[in-house]
Amino acid sequence: MSIHIYLLKRLLYTLPLLAGAITVIFILIHAAPGDPVDYLIGEAGADQEMIDRMRSQMGLDQPLVTRLWLYGLQVASGNLGYSAVSGAPVLTLILERFPATLLLMATQYTMAAVAGIALGVLAARNPRSRTDNVITFLSLASFAIPVFWLGQMMILVLAYHLNWFPIQGMTNLRRGYTGYAYAMDVAYHLTLPALTLALSNLGLITRLTRSSMIQVLGQDYIKVATAKGLSERAVLLRHALRNSLLPVITVIGDSLPGLIAGAVIVETVFGWPGLGRLTLDAINSRDYPLLMGMFLFISVFVILINLIVDLLYAVLDPRIRYQ
Length: 323
Prior knowledge:
It is built from 13 helices and no strands. The chain is mainly α.
């Protein structure tokens, strides 16, 4: 099967998956306690006629099944609706925040993958040695530490006491940087939130790489490569590491939904203006259209990442074919 037919079939398979995700998310959001009309009215209060008119405008007076059907038709036409709080198009609000979250996730993934794979290979060279024990202890500790606690400790020690990094935000608005200075300012503000998320994933990647490398290093073709006189570096990096990365890539792809949940916490702690903070604001204000749009956008993003992960399998292991 060619890669084009494989991609087409995978994309067609996502349609019922998205329909199921929309149904489940829609029911769960509307079953949650709280009324968006109460939030919009606030403490000012309103008479019953005004409340009924607002509920009618937001479609809340319709049965749940009718609202779900109308929302499905709306999404099928490419319209994610309008925010109940700001009135802005949901897709516009999401696309405004998405670059910040994408930058945070890509940076932390790169940091965690590079450091985790390097530490895993280093530990697998001499299992149960002092180096392996130290790396194992540190990886287990980073895996066990809660993200919100780690983020607060980062702010308290590195930002507040040592003043090495800014406490919150994505840029220094008072400076008004542009061009290269702006990019460096964003990188400066990005360091702590990306490091917090990377450390929470570092332990898992390190442990998986170590275990997979030890298993691969015991294979016959590795012994043949060593017997041919290849250097240890060539055996580790050229022959063993490539075949050891399949489980690591699988776990990275599967961990993406949980990572987005972690990004909500980290973006809130560090004041990072991404999708995480937008989701939290939508939850607090019972903004149903924005919440639905957020979860739908994240679902599509996760499906695409999993598709890319499946394509990487064949790149790393030529024995895998598209079927």
